[in-house]
Amino acid sequence: SAVISQKPSRDICQRGTSLTIQCQVDSQVTMMFWYRQQPGQSLTLIATANQGSEATYESGFVIDKFPISRPNLTFSTLTVSNMSPEDSSIYLCSVKRTGVAPYNEQFFGPGTRLTVL
Amino acid sequence: GESVGLHLPTLSVQEGDNSIINCAYSNSASDYFIWYKQESGKGPQFIIDIRSNMDKRQGQRVTVLLNKTVKHLSLQIAATQPGDSAVYFCAETLTGGFKTIFGAGTRLFVKA
Fold first, then answer.
1. What does the pLDDT look like over B6-16, one tens digit per residue?
2. Does B96 contact A at CB distance below 8 Å?
3. Do B99 and A33 touch (CB under 8 A)?
4. Residue B98 in contact with residue B92, Cβ under 8 Å?
5. Model confidence over A46-102: pLDDT tens digits?
6. Prior bond to A8 cis, omega within 30?
7. Do A44 and B2 touch, CB atoms closer than 8 A?
8. Which chain B residue shows the shortest CA-CA distance from A43?
9. Are the beta carbons of A43 and B89 separated by less than 8 Å?
10. In the 8-state DSSP scheme, what is residue A98?
11. Are A110 and B42 inside 8 Å of each other by CB?
């Protein structure tokens, strides 16, 4: 398994400011993903962040709004820039191991609950 | 675009009964279908997956059924326990890709 920690666990921010969320994994993984989950709803993939390449963003998400860093195989950050109340959500970091069964299993961090006032 | 959705948003079952959670999907170009369980305040946890060329797969107390003709996926939980209370998401991995698309979720309540 992979154990994932996220910082901060929650934050309340003012609109117009930015927040950087950190994701730390206890083992080296190539594939890392960032999701957003609004309360009571499903997970929406923001981007895929593989080490050694630029992050790939899903439709509706852009790098200027959600810049991502992936400096090594155990760490990543997601920044939510110029926040508005619509960005209030839970942000989840996730990893997938390669070459280890079950091949589709993704591990998730506990999430960062963001409230924008 | 691709989407994965569910028929029932909530399901309440008696402890010891079997639970069936259903999911409809619209994208035929999926390689695997997956079920995740999410408890309150935690990230989703992998339960079981099924490859698109299979129609049934069993795990410990869980069975996943795939009907590609009607694009329907279900998760059966045998002898449901209070610890099974959670939100269950179906998800799919598109063929040739690594990303996972999640469905809307069903909240399961287990009554003691």
1. 444 899 999 99
2. no
3. yes
4. no
5. 999 988 889 999 999 999 999 999 999 999 999 999 999 999 999 999 998 876 767
6. yes
7. no
8. B102
9. yes
10. S
11. yes
